[in-house]
């Protein structure tokens, strides 16, 4: 289901066993509303190392060093952290994949797309890029 978490999810109260948020906004009270009492909230957030090799060459926005802290603040009172794991991998990307990654993140709304395309074209191929996320699991408080 795709929906705007700020407008309310199209689910009844306590309907979900698991809620997954991947690089998405989190409305703690709404997520708690739809999650069963014994349910699990799984949140994937980028670490500062995510796409690090592309930040300077493509003038991408950096991941906030306080990302985990801000996540905890957004869920405080309604959820308790169960586990937190960092997952990292390396990707060998062609220019099309680099453009897709840069185009789906917050940097897509900042800067000039044509200029970003020129910068991508100047990269060698394949481009070795680090994927790095923190996967946090929460239980209802």
How would you characterize this protein structure?
The protein has 141 residues and is of the alpha+beta class. Helix content is 30%, strand content 34%. The chain is built from 5 helices and 4 strands; from the N terminus they run βαβααβααβ. A 4-stranded mixed β-sheet has the order 1-2-4-3. Helix 4 packs antiparallel against helix 5 (113-121). The radius of gyration is 17 Å and the shape is elongated. The mean pLDDT is 92.
Mind telling me the C-alpha Rg? Answer: 17 Å
Main structural class: alpha+beta
State the major sheet. Answer: 4 strands, mixed
* Poorly predicted sequence stretches spanning 5 or more consecutive residues: none
Helix content: 25-40%
The overall pLDDT average reads: 92
Q: In whole angstroms, how far apart are the ends?
A: 25 Å
Order of helices and strands: EHEHHEHHE
What is the approximate shape?
A: elongated
Share of β-strand residues: 25-35%
- The number of distinct helices, counting runs of at least 4 residues, comes to 5
> Strand order of the main beta sheet, please?
1-2-4-3
Give me the count of strands. 4
């Amino acid at each position: 289901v795709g929906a705007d978490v700020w407008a309310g999810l199209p689910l009844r109260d306590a309907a979900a066993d698991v809620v997954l948020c991947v690089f998405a906004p989190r409305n703690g009270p709404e997520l708690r509303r739809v999650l069963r009492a014994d349910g699990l909230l799984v949140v994937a957030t980028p670490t500062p190392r995510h796409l690090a090799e592309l930040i300077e060459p493509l003038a991408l926005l950096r991941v906030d060093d306080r990302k985990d802290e801000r996540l905890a603040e957004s869920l405080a009172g309604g959820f308790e952290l169960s586990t937190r794991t960092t997952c990292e991998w390396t990707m060998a990307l062609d220019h099309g994949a680099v453009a897709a990654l840069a185009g789906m993140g917050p940097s897509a709304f900042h800067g000039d797309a044509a200029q970003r395309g020129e910068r991508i074209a100047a990269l060698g191929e394949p481009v070795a890029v680090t994927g790095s996320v923190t996967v946090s699991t929460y239980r209802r408080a």
